[in-house]
Write a structure and sequence with these properties.
446 residues, 3-stranded antiparallel β-sheet, 7-stranded mixed β-sheet, 16% strand, 38% helix
Length: 446
C-alpha cells in the first residue's frame, strides 16, 4: 500500500465522464434538494504540510513523557527491539481491516499461524486461536466455552484485574450468566471459600484466576485446579506472557484454558491500545474456541500453505444464538507479537522475565527500608503493593515532578508498584530517595 496521493481536477473530470456524469452535481442528483448542504462545512480551511506538522507538535507537547515508569497493572513498559517495527510496518503486511479472502494473504496467515504456535509453546496448550481484541475480552469469551445445559455459573477471583472482572460482568449481563466473585485473602484467592462455593453449586461451569494476580502475587494454581476439577468445572487462567518464560505454564498447573493480553510482547503502552488478546486450550476443547484458527496444509504442488481451519462459524449459522460474537482478529498486533517473540527467542524472553522479577524484588526491599511496608508477604513476579503512610497521591505528585511515573494508587494509602528490565538501579534508587524525602516532609532532588 503506497502513500496517499490525491487526484487532480482533470482526473476527477475524467472519472466522472467515464462513469457517465457531467459533473458532481449530476452524480449526486439522486439526493433530494432539501437534503443537500447549500453552504460550506463549518471546518477550518486546509493547512500546508509544514503547518499540520507544527500543529501536531503543539498538541503532542501537552503530553507528559516520563523518563522512567513504575506502573503496570495490565500494561507494561518493556524494551521493543528495532526489528519489531521494521518488520511489522512493511507494506506487504499492512492490509485492510481483516483478510476476508484470507487464503490469498498467505503471508498474513503464516504470521497468525506462527503467533498461534508460539502462544501454544508459552502456555503449554495444544491449540490457540488467531487472537482476541484484548486480554479482558479473551477472558470474558472463555466463559461460554465452559458452559453447557447444566453448568451455567462462572466464578472469578477478586484478586483478578478489576478491568477484566468488569468486562466479564458486562458479557455475563448480556447473556444472562450468573457471575460470582470469589473473595481474596492475604493477596490470594481464598481457596477454602472457593471450595465451599463450588461444593454448594452443581451448576458451576468455570473458575477464572490470574497468574500472577492483580496484586502481583503467585496463586497456588495447582490447588485451585484440583478444587475446580473436583467440582466438575473448568479452570481458566489469565497470564502475563512474559512471566511464562520462567514460571510454570498454565497447562502444567492444570488449567483448561489460558488467556491473556499480548501487550508485553512488543507493543508500546500507546495510551491503552490497540493491544491483542490471546486464548489457548487443550485438544478436548478445541472446537469450542471462538474466533479463527489458522492451520497448515499443502497446496496442489505439495508446498507448505496456510488456511483458515475454523472461522466465525457460529455467527454465520446460529446468529443471535451464537456463544461468541468475535468474527475477526488483531492481525497487526499478532504480527508484532510474533516478530517480538521470534527476535527475543527463549533466552531473551527468559532474560526479560528474570530481570523484571529481580528488579521488582530489589525495589520492594529498598522501599520497605524507606518505610513503605509491603501489604502482602507472598511470592510475587514484577508487581507488589506497599502501604504509603505519606499519601499515595502526594508521593505520585513528587515523583512526577522528577519525571517519574510512580506506581498505581490503589487507595489513598496503598500503591501497586511495577518494575521491568527498563528500570535501572539508579531509577529505582531515585524513587526510594524521593519517597524517603516525602515521608520526612522534605524536598527531594534526584
Amino acid at each position: 500500500m503506497g502513500s496517499y496521493v490525491p487526484n487532480t481536477k482533470a482526473e476527477q473530470e475524467a472519472m466522472l465522464k467515464e462513469a457517465g456524469y457531467s459533473g458532481f452535481e449530476d452524480m449526486f442528483s439522486c439526493i433530494p434538494e432539501e437534503n443537500r448542504l447549500k453552504r460550506p462545512l463549518n471546518i477550518p480551511s486546509g493547512l500546508s504540510e509544514m503547518e499540520v506538522l507544527r500543529k501536531m507538535e503543539e498538541i503532542a507537547d501537552k503530553n507528559t513523557v516520563f523518563k522512567s515508569i513504575f506502573r503496570g497493572a495490565g500494561a507494561y513498559n518493556h524494551y521493543i527491539p528495532a526489528i519489531v517495527k521494521s518488520v511489522s510496518t512493511k507494506e506487504e503486511f499492512v492490509t485492510t481491516y481483516t483478510p476476508y479472502q484470507a487464503e490469498i494473504s498467505q503471508g498474513i496467515l503464516q504470521s497468525i499461524f506462527e503467533f498461534q504456535t508460539m502462544i501454544c509453546e508459552l502456555t503449554g496448550m495444544d491449540v490457540a486461536n488467531a487472537s482476541h481484541y484484548d486480554g479482558a475480552t479473551a477472558a470474558a469469551e472463555s466463559i461460554p466455552m465452559c458452559q453447557d445445559r447444566k453448568r451455567k455459573t462462572a466464578y472469578v477471583s477478586e484478586a483478578a484485574h478489576p478491568g477484566v472482572i468488569q468486562v466479564m460482568k458486562t458479557y455475563c449481563f448480556g447473556s444472562g450468566t450468573r457471575l460470582v466473585e470469589v473473595p481474596a485473602r492475604d493477596g490470594l484467592t481464598d481457596t477454602e471459600e472457593l471450595e465451599t462455593l463450588l461444593k454448594e453449586d452443581p451448576a458451576a461451569a468455570c473458575v477464572y484466576i490470574q497468574q500472577p494476580n492483580f496484586y502481583g502475587n503467585f496463586e497456588d494454581a495447582e490447588k485451585i485446579a484440583e478444587i475446580t476439577h473436583t467440582a466438575g468445572a473448568k479452570l481458566v487462567m489469565g497470564v502475563n506472557p512474559i512471566s511464562l518464560a520462567i514460571i510454570q505454564s498454565p497447562a502444567e498447573a492444570g488449567a483448561d484454558i489460558a488467556v491473556g493480553d499480548g501487550q508485553p510482547l512488543g507493543m508500546p503502552l500507546a495510551y491503552g491500545g490497540p493491544y491483542v488478546g490471546f486464548m489457548a486450550t487443550n485438544s478436548k476443547m478445541m472446537r469450542k474456541l471462538p474466533g479463527r484458527i489458522v492451520g497448515e496444509t499443502t497446496d496442489d504442488k505439495g508446498e507448505r500453505a496456510f488456511v483458515l481451519t475454523l472461522q466465525a462459524r457460529e455467527q454465520h449459522i446460529r446468529r443471535e444464538k451464537a456463544s461468541s460474537n468475535i468474527c475477526s482478529n488483531q492481525d497487526l498486533c499478532t504480527l508484532i507479537a510474533s516478530v517480538y517473540m521470534a527476535a527475543m527467542g527463549k533466552d531473551g524472553m527468559r532474560a526479560v522475565a528474570t530481570q523484571s522479577m529481580s528488579k521488582a524484588h530489589y525495589l520492594a526491599e529498598q522501599l520497605e527500608g524507606a518505610g513503605f511496608r509491603p501489604l502482602y508477604r507472598q511470592d510475587f513476579f514484577n508487581e507488589f503493593i506497599t502501604d504509603c503512610p505519606c499519601g499515595s497521591q502526594k508521593l505520585m505528585k513528587a515523583l512526577e515532578n522528577h519525571g517519574i511515573l510512580g506506581g498505581l494508587p490503589i487507595t489513598e494509602n496503598a500503591i501497586l508498584w511495577c518494575a521491568t528490565e527498563m528500570n535501572t538501579k539508579k531509577d529505582m534508587d531515585d524513587v526510594v530517595t524521593i519517597a524517603k524525602a516525602v515521608m520526612e516532609g522534605k524536598e527531594a532532588h534526584a
